[in-house]
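Late entry, written up from scratch paper. The run itself happened at the end of the previous shift, but nothing got recorded in the book at the time, so transcribing now.
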Amino acid sequence: MTQTSFSNPEKIKIIDNYLSEKLMSDLEKFLLSNDFPYYYIENIVLGSLGSKKSDSFMFVHHLIENEKESSTVGNSITNMIMSNVPHKNILRSKINFYLNTNYLQLHDFHLDNSDNKDIKIAIFYINTNNGFTEFEDNSIVKSVRNRLVLFPGNLKHRSTNTTDKKNRINININYI
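Output as recorded:
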Protein backbone atom coordinates (compact mmCIF):
# COMPACT_ATOMS: atom_id res chain seq x y z
CA MET A 1 0.00 0.00 0.00
CA THR A 2 1.59 3.28 -1.08
CA GLN A 3 0.32 6.65 -0.02
CA THR A 4 0.18 9.56 -2.43
CA SER A 5 0.71 13.05 -1.06
CA PHE A 6 -1.97 15.68 -1.62
CA SER A 7 -1.94 19.46 -1.55
CA ASN A 8 -4.03 19.49 1.63
CA PRO A 9 -2.92 16.40 3.61
CA GLU A 10 -4.69 17.34 6.84
CA LYS A 11 -8.04 17.20 5.03
CA ILE A 12 -7.68 14.78 2.13
CA LYS A 13 -5.75 11.52 2.20
CA ILE A 14 -5.10 9.40 -0.90
CA ILE A 15 -3.90 5.82 -0.69
CA ASP A 16 -2.91 4.06 -3.90
CA ASN A 17 -2.75 0.26 -4.28
CA TYR A 18 -5.06 0.01 -1.29
CA LEU A 19 -6.21 -3.62 -1.65
CA SER A 20 -4.02 -6.56 -2.53
CA GLU A 21 -4.04 -7.30 -6.26
CA LYS A 22 -5.96 -10.55 -5.63
CA LEU A 23 -8.74 -8.81 -3.65
CA MET A 24 -8.89 -5.97 -6.16
CA SER A 25 -9.08 -8.29 -9.14
CA ASP A 26 -11.81 -10.41 -7.51
CA LEU A 27 -13.84 -7.31 -6.58
CA GLU A 28 -13.48 -5.83 -10.06
CA LYS A 29 -14.61 -9.06 -11.76
CA PHE A 30 -17.57 -9.36 -9.39
CA LEU A 31 -18.78 -5.77 -9.91
CA LEU A 32 -18.40 -6.03 -13.69
CA SER A 33 -20.08 -9.41 -14.05
CA ASN A 34 -23.34 -9.73 -15.97
CA ASP A 35 -25.05 -10.92 -12.79
CA PHE A 36 -24.30 -7.95 -10.55
CA PRO A 37 -27.37 -5.66 -10.31
CA TYR A 38 -27.24 -1.89 -10.72
CA TYR A 39 -30.28 0.37 -10.47
CA TYR A 40 -31.13 3.48 -12.48
CA ILE A 41 -30.90 6.84 -10.69
CA GLU A 42 -32.33 9.82 -12.56
CA ASN A 43 -30.53 12.58 -10.60
CA ILE A 44 -26.86 12.06 -9.86
CA VAL A 45 -26.91 14.55 -6.97
CA LEU A 46 -29.99 14.02 -4.83
CA GLY A 47 -32.15 17.14 -4.73
CA SER A 48 -30.04 18.80 -7.38
CA LEU A 49 -31.65 21.13 -9.87
CA GLY A 50 -28.52 21.80 -11.92
CA SER A 51 -28.12 18.27 -13.31
CA LYS A 52 -31.48 17.87 -15.00
CA LYS A 53 -29.97 17.22 -18.43
CA SER A 54 -31.46 14.18 -20.11
CA ASP A 55 -28.09 12.45 -20.15
CA SER A 56 -27.28 13.13 -16.48
CA PHE A 57 -28.06 9.82 -14.83
CA MET A 58 -26.21 6.87 -13.36
CA PHE A 59 -26.66 3.42 -11.92
CA VAL A 60 -26.22 2.55 -8.24
CA HIS A 61 -26.09 -0.50 -6.04
CA HIS A 62 -26.83 0.37 -2.40
CA LEU A 63 -24.76 -1.70 0.02
CA ILE A 64 -25.70 -0.03 3.31
CA GLU A 65 -28.49 2.52 3.83
CA ASN A 66 -29.41 4.20 7.12
CA GLU A 67 -26.77 2.10 8.90
CA LYS A 68 -28.37 -1.21 7.76
CA GLU A 69 -27.21 -3.66 5.14
CA SER A 70 -29.38 -3.29 2.04
CA SER A 71 -27.60 -5.81 -0.18
CA THR A 72 -26.54 -9.40 0.37
CA VAL A 73 -22.96 -8.27 -0.22
CA GLY A 74 -23.25 -4.91 1.55
CA ASN A 75 -21.27 -5.68 4.68
CA SER A 76 -18.62 -7.82 2.98
CA ILE A 77 -17.74 -5.23 0.31
CA THR A 78 -17.92 -2.29 2.72
CA ASN A 79 -15.85 -4.08 5.37
CA MET A 80 -13.22 -4.97 2.76
CA ILE A 81 -12.79 -1.29 1.92
CA MET A 82 -13.02 -0.04 5.51
CA SER A 83 -10.82 -2.72 7.12
CA ASN A 84 -7.87 -0.32 7.54
CA VAL A 85 -9.87 2.88 8.08
CA PRO A 86 -10.62 3.77 11.72
CA HIS A 87 -14.37 4.27 12.10
CA LYS A 88 -17.21 3.80 14.59
CA ASN A 89 -20.13 3.28 12.25
CA ILE A 90 -21.00 3.03 8.55
CA LEU A 91 -23.92 5.31 7.72
CA ARG A 92 -24.17 4.61 3.99
CA SER A 93 -22.27 2.68 1.38
CA LYS A 94 -23.04 2.48 -2.33
CA ILE A 95 -21.48 1.60 -5.64
CA ASN A 96 -21.72 4.31 -8.31
CA PHE A 97 -21.70 3.20 -11.95
CA TYR A 98 -21.31 6.04 -14.47
CA LEU A 99 -21.59 5.43 -18.21
CA ASN A 100 -19.35 6.72 -20.95
CA THR A 101 -20.69 9.74 -22.83
CA ASN A 102 -19.36 11.92 -25.65
CA TYR A 103 -18.33 14.66 -23.24
CA LEU A 104 -17.15 14.80 -19.65
CA GLN A 105 -20.06 15.75 -17.38
CA LEU A 106 -19.24 17.81 -14.30
CA HIS A 107 -21.94 17.00 -11.76
CA ASP A 108 -23.08 19.46 -9.09
CA PHE A 109 -20.98 20.20 -6.01
CA HIS A 110 -22.62 18.70 -2.94
CA LEU A 111 -22.26 17.37 0.59
CA ASP A 112 -23.19 13.72 1.04
CA ASN A 113 -24.97 14.45 4.33
CA SER A 114 -25.31 18.05 5.47
CA ASP A 115 -27.18 17.04 8.65
CA ASN A 116 -24.25 15.23 10.25
CA LYS A 117 -21.20 17.41 10.95
CA ASP A 118 -19.03 14.43 12.03
CA ILE A 119 -19.42 12.49 8.80
CA LYS A 120 -16.37 11.36 6.85
CA ILE A 121 -16.23 10.14 3.27
CA ALA A 122 -14.29 7.30 1.69
CA ILE A 123 -14.30 6.89 -2.08
CA PHE A 124 -12.73 3.77 -3.55
CA TYR A 125 -12.05 3.70 -7.29
CA ILE A 126 -12.65 0.42 -9.11
CA ASN A 127 -11.23 1.39 -12.49
CA THR A 128 -8.85 3.89 -14.05
CA ASN A 129 -10.44 6.38 -16.43
CA ASN A 130 -10.45 10.11 -17.18
CA GLY A 131 -13.19 10.79 -14.61
CA PHE A 132 -12.39 12.35 -11.26
CA THR A 133 -13.62 13.74 -7.96
CA GLU A 134 -13.28 17.50 -7.72
CA PHE A 135 -13.41 19.67 -4.59
CA GLU A 136 -14.60 23.29 -4.42
CA ASP A 137 -11.01 24.54 -4.12
CA ASN A 138 -10.39 22.99 -7.59
CA SER A 139 -8.37 20.09 -6.16
CA ILE A 140 -8.88 16.95 -8.19
CA VAL A 141 -8.50 13.27 -7.33
CA LYS A 142 -8.22 11.23 -10.52
CA SER A 143 -10.05 7.92 -10.90
CA VAL A 144 -7.27 5.39 -10.53
CA ARG A 145 -7.92 1.68 -10.04
CA ASN A 146 -7.45 0.54 -6.42
CA ARG A 147 -7.19 4.09 -5.04
CA LEU A 148 -8.87 5.15 -1.79
CA VAL A 149 -9.49 8.78 -0.93
CA LEU A 150 -10.60 9.87 2.56
CA PHE A 151 -11.89 13.31 3.43
CA PRO A 152 -14.16 15.15 5.90
CA GLY A 153 -17.84 15.30 4.99
CA ASN A 154 -17.89 19.09 5.15
CA LEU A 155 -15.87 19.37 1.93
CA LYS A 156 -18.12 19.98 -1.05
CA HIS A 157 -17.19 17.74 -3.94
CA ARG A 158 -18.50 16.56 -7.26
CA SER A 159 -18.13 13.63 -9.57
CA THR A 160 -17.84 13.14 -13.30
CA ASN A 161 -18.59 10.38 -15.74
CA THR A 162 -15.94 9.16 -18.20
CA THR A 163 -15.27 9.55 -21.91
CA ASP A 164 -12.28 7.24 -22.38
CA LYS A 165 -13.55 3.94 -20.89
CA LYS A 166 -16.86 2.09 -21.04
CA ASN A 167 -17.69 3.06 -17.47
CA ARG A 168 -16.50 4.68 -14.26
CA ILE A 169 -17.14 2.77 -11.04
CA ASN A 170 -16.46 3.81 -7.47
CA ILE A 171 -17.65 2.92 -4.00
CA ASN A 172 -18.81 5.83 -1.83
CA ILE A 173 -18.89 5.24 1.93
CA ASN A 174 -20.18 7.71 4.55
CA TYR A 175 -18.97 6.93 8.07
CA ILE A 176 -18.27 8.35 11.51
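The first helix runs from residue 21 to 31.
(Scratch paper discarded after transcription.)
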